[in-house]
Amino acid sequence: MSISSIFDIAGSGMAAQSLRLNTTASNLANAQAASSSIGEVYRARHPVFSAVHQSAMQGDGFMSSIQDEASVGVKVDGIVESDAPLQKRYEPQHPKADKEGYVYYPNVNVVEEMADMISSSRSFQMNVEMMNSAKTMMRGLLSLGQ
């Protein structure tokens, strides 16, 4: 693995955390979106990530027979809807109430979403710091030749 692949790894992490932050923002924006039927209610969405692997040991070196897998990034497998129960509230005065007086609200837990937002923001920030460290190391390598 070369030092330049650090930028690819950190970049894939930043893209994944950006998507996570966007889905969290969407969930928070729709947290109080009322509906008159269960089928129309917004459901919380969460991204699913997986590691991208590449063979760590390649070539004719001392340990070339060992083919360990090293993670070289992250990819988004998809976005899934939460299967948590929806909120059913009795509000007969609400304009979107059904004929029994119930209004349905999304299954968004605002506290969980805020924690996800902080976590994704910090993960994004760590990937930025990783890129900055790699950039500093590359500058140091270039200055050795002077």
What does this molecule look like?
With 146 residues, this protein is α+β, with helices and mostly antiparallel strands. 41% of the residues lie in helices and 22% in strands. It has two helices and four strands; from the N terminus they run H-E-E-E-E-H. It has a two-stranded antiparallel ribbon. A two-stranded antiparallel ribbon has the order 3-4. The radius of gyration is 23 Å and the shape is elongated. It starts with a helix and ends with a helix. The model is unreliable at 56-68 (pLDDT under 50).
Total number of beta strands: 4
Mean pLDDT: 86
The class by helix and strand makeup works out as: alpha+beta
Residue fraction in strands: 15-25%
Distance between the termini: 25 Å
Number of helices: 2
How are the strands of the biggest sheet laid out side by side?
1-2
Low-confidence stretches: 56-68
Give a quick account of the main beta sheet: strands, pairing sense, barrel closure.
2 strands, antiparallel
List the helices and strands in order.
Answer: HEEEEH
Provide a short characterization of the protein structure:
The protein is α+β, with helices and mostly antiparallel strands. Helices cover 41% and strands 22% of the residues. The protein has helices at 5-29, 110-144, and strands spanning 45-55, 69-81, 87-90, 102-105.
